[in-house]
Amino acid sequence: MSLGWPGNASGSPWKSWKEVSGSVDMSAASCLLTEDQFLCSICLDVFTDPVSTPCGHNFCKTCITEHWTINVQCHCPNCKEVFYTRPELQVNTFISEMAAQFR
Ligand SMILES: [Zn+2]
Ligand SMILES: [Zn+2]
Question: For residue 56, how far is its CA from the centre of ligand 2 (angstroms)?
Answer without folding.
Answer: 6
